[in-house]
Amino acid sequence: MTENLRYFLVKKGATVEISKEDPTSQVTNSAIKPEVNIFTPEKSSELSRETIRELLSQQQGELLIDGYIYEKDLGNVIDPDFTTGIIIKIYSIDGTMVGECIIGSFYSTSDFEVNQIYASLIADKIAQNYLSYSEKWLGFFKK
What pTM was computed for the model? Predict the structure, then answer.
């Protein structure tokens, strides 16, 4: 999904840098993993404002796109039932969340064509709301 999203954002005129390391590793200590207990909440994997500002300043970026994909196979061979959830969060240079995109579907992201469709939808939303070129062309398309 990451590379497809990058492809469609670059196609729309954005400059995209993919983080070399998982930003959430800076938030949680992966060396010490307590036993999983359903009654105690896990530490949040949300990025702190400081982490977002640091990542954006290192890359000289304006927006940070973070998110995750949830996939669950609920069915069986005779009656397949699959669900996918994609959650994207967009943060500004000061570390505040400025947007969120949620997609729910019954198709897996492991299918390349479906993955491209999801990435294209997300890139379109990001371009419409955050890329400056969309403002230049919006008036033209409304005529």
Answer: 0.68
